[in-house]
Amino acid sequence: MKNIIFPLLLVVTTAIAANAAIYVKVDASGTGNGSCWNDAFTDIGSAIAAASDDEDIYVAGGIYEITASLPQKAVKIYGGFVGNEATPNPAQRAKGGSGRPWDFATPTVVDASRWAESADRIFAYRDGAVALTLDGLTFQGRKTSDHAPVIKGNAGLVMQNCIV
After folding, report:
1. What's CA 162's distance to the chain center, in Å?
2. Runs of H (alpha helix) within the chain
3. What does the radius of gyration of the chain's CA atoms come to, in whole angstroms?
4. Could you tell me what percentage of the chain is helix, strand and coil, using 3-state DSSP and rounding each to the nearest 5?
5. What b-and-e string marks burial along 97-136, b requiring 16 or more CB atoms within 10 Å of the CB?
6. pLDDT digits over 11-44, tens only?
7. For 158, which DSSP code?
């Protein structure tokens, strides 16, 4: 019986760990492994690269500069967190004063203002490649005359509570 219980516990523990969220906080000072707010990644691209498909990425308010397309993964990215929540829940992010769904007390800004005009989009996903959820993010600084600044391709995009 002991031989059966141990592998079962290992499988359950692995399944729980696989569904853990990844944290991003621009001023985190811990290990940088994304396991909690203190040890959060300090940039969104590293968090996406470390994520598994369908994993949640929680991003604390702040300005996150990017200069190249972010990695192509089927992830759910939620911004607008304070960065100290014990159990982050996208439905419980602190709202700003306007009452609008995209107005967060601590906005998460993806700033691409230092990006070359000829560069691709922030999320350059190829047609039908993967699903992507963006929620609670403000995109700024990526202005082009010939295409959308945020996403390229039909990625099964869900974009809500965002400012572009």
Report:
1. 12
2. 2-18, 44-50
3. 17
4. 15, 25, 60
5. eeeeebebebbbbbbbeebeeeeebbbbbeeeebbbbbbb
6. 333 333 445 899 999 999 999 999 999 999 999 9
7. E
